[in-house]
Design brief:
The protein has 283 residues and is mostly helical. It has a single domain, classed as MetI-like (MetI-like fold), CATH 1.10.3720.10. Helix 8 runs antiparallel to helix 9. The longest helix is centred in the last third of the chain and has 67 residues. It starts with a helix and ends with a helix.
Length: 283
């Protein structure tokens, strides 16, 4: 009898709480003040994520190129290589929250300096260290014979890197860079610690005691925003991968045709020089 009464009491309680949760969910989505606050936080989150992604990609490319170039010129590239290794080691070895605090309250503790720029710089510098290692691994995964073949066709080291190596490396590291972008988007949720109203902080404001006095419904709405952006990124990354696979064969055919034309020109030049040499020797 006691077990039956417990079940009878539990079921209506569960139904009542579920009904209350959906009412609160509807309140968040239908109240203009709440939805405007969430949209403003969403805009701030996107600005920080996009700005940091661009900065991280630029820093990652520079650091990766320096590390690869230093393998052949260790003496000339000793100082840049040391700086890049120190940068990657320090950034990857310390928490991003600590880096954000140092940037906001020590390095960029300037009155009137935009906190959004501080967040973009922090997350961009942090992301650059991880992107650099992904790109370096992608470049090193390309067969060394590719560079040797390019050099034999008369391409310089820089031309070989830009035209042959980097395109193949980017194709190899797209999944890793995509994962880094997704992680970066989610990491921006800690910017509320320095006073920025982002998507997560907007939900916290809505759920405060002087508003809804519950955090579950606003946090669920915010989670849906994060999920939507993440799945859009996943869809875009998969679309890029499919596009690259489809165009890979056509690109290889174009490269082969260019190499064939260059080789024919070189053979003609060698043949002409040989004929001139024979004529001079006959005279």
């Amino acid at each position: 009898m006691t077990a039956r009464r417990g079940k009878a009491i539990t079921l209506p309680l569960f139904v009542a709480r579920s009904d209350m949760f959906f009412q609160q969910l509807w309140e968040v989505m239908s109240t203009s003040e709440y939805i405007m606050l969430i949209l403003e936080g969403f805009r701030t989150t996107l600005i920080i994520a996009v700005g940091a992604s661009v900065l991280g990609l630029l820093l990652g490319i520079i650091v990766a190129i320096v590390k690869i170039a230093a393998q052949n010129n260790k003496r000339k590239m000793a100082i840049p290589l040391f700086i890049c290794n120190l940068y990657v080691s320090v950034i990857r070895g310390t928490p991003v929250a600590l880096q954000l605090f140092i940037m906001a309250f020590a390095i960029l503790a300037i009155r009137g300096f935009p906190l959004t720029i501080t967040a973009i710089l922090t997350f961009g510098i942090n992301s650059g260290a991880y992107v650099a290692e992904s790109l370096r691994g992608g470049i090193q995964s390309v067969d060394a014979g590719q560079d040797e073949a390019a050099r034999s066709l008369g391409l310089s080291g820089m031309q070989s890197m830009i035209s042959i190596i980097i395109p193949q490396a980017i194709k190899n590291v797209i999944p890793a860079i995509g994962n880094e972008l997704i992680a970066l988007l989610k990491e921006t949720s800690i910017v509320s610690m320095i006073g920025i109203i982002d998507l997560t902080f907007a939900a916290k404001i809505i759920g405060a005691g002087n508003q809804m006095a519950t955090y579950l419904a606003p946090m669920v709405v915010v989670a849906l925003f994060y999920l939507a952006v993440v799945y859009l990124l996943i869809f875009g990354i998969r679309a890029i991968e499919r596009k690259l696979k489809q165009s890979e064969q056509h690109i290889d055919e174009k490269k082969a045709e260019k190499c064939r034309v260059r080789m024919i020109k070189r053979l003609k030049a060698i043949d002409e020089n040989y004929q001139k040499f024979c004529i001079r020797k006959g005279q």
